[in-house]
Amino acid sequence: MDDLLKFLHARYEADNHAYAEVAYRFGADALLDSHLPMLDLLDMLARDYEAMNPTDARFVGLGHALRVLAQSYTEHPDYRAEWRP
Questions:
Q1: What angle do CA 80, 34, 16 make, to 5 degrees?
Q2: What's the domain range around 34?
Q3: Left, alpha or beta for 27 (phi > 0: left; psi -120 to 50: alpha)?
Q4: How far is CA 41 from CA 26, 72, 73, in A?
Q5: What pTM was computed for the model?
Q6: How many structural domains does the chain have?
Q7: Residue 59: CA atoms inside 13 Å, Cβ hemisphere, count?
């Protein structure tokens, strides 16, 4: 799971950088309002999972949710098939 979390953090950073570049070139109106908050929520969930005690009743479910959300990156060359839920 550590590799998946590193992957998700890297995608968060790369996507935020890409969105900043689009905003710089074309203005903030060029961005879809829903994407940046969704990226922030995915990053927040990944950080919550890292900080969570494995005995927490939510641990398994949150891990599954992160695997499901990571599927949006299946076309990325660093995505691994074993991360599928």
A1: 55
A2: 2-83
A3: left
A4: 25, 14, 16
A5: 0.85
A6: 1
A7: 9
